[in-house]
């Protein structure tokens, strides 16, 4: 016969499993906050517009280069190689905000949690295609 504690632990684990949300798998799963994307827009305008237009990261240009790639590829590109005159000078907070801005510019929805610089987690997130815009 099972003990009370054994049954209690099994019931608790089942409840936790039923209540947990599935892990996001795409950039369309609300993986950043709207405030983070807004901050990223300001950072993009400060650090990126000297060499880039947001149009390079939207619509057909986005789909041909980034759609289907892991989120980590975009983040690492921004964090390690940008801005061109000071590669790698952006911190994780700035690079994730710029990444969030690019996702928002492609119509990806915001969510409740900040996008973090966790590369292992980002590798499991696929960048969604966007409608031409």
Q: What does it look like?
A:
- With 133 residues, the chain is mostly helical.
- It has one domain (24-123): Cytochrome c-like domain (Cytochrome Bc1 Complex, Chain D, domain 2, Orthogonal Bundle), CATH 1.10.760.10.
- Helix content is 51%, strand content 0%.
- The protein has helices at 4-19, 34-48, 59-65, 71-81, 92-105, 119-123.
- The longest helix is centred in the N-terminal third of the chain and has 16 residues, at 4-19.
Number of helices: 6
CATH top-level class: Mainly Alpha
CATH architecture grouping: Orthogonal Bundle
Say how many strands there are.
Answer: 0
Q: What's the CATH H-level superfamily name? A: Cytochrome c-like domain
Overall body shape: globular
What value does the Rg take, in angstroms? 19 Å
Count of distinct structural domains: 1
Key terms for this structure?
mainly alpha, 51% helix, single chain, Cytochrome Bc1 Complex, Chain D, domain 2, 133 residues
What's a quick, concise take on this entry?
The protein has helices spanning 4-19, 34-48, 59-65, 71-81, 92-105, 119-123. It is 51% helix and 0% strand.
Fold topology:
Layout: H1 4-19, H2 34-48, H3 59-65, H4 71-81, H5 92-105, H6 119-123
Helix pairs in contact: 2-5, 4-5
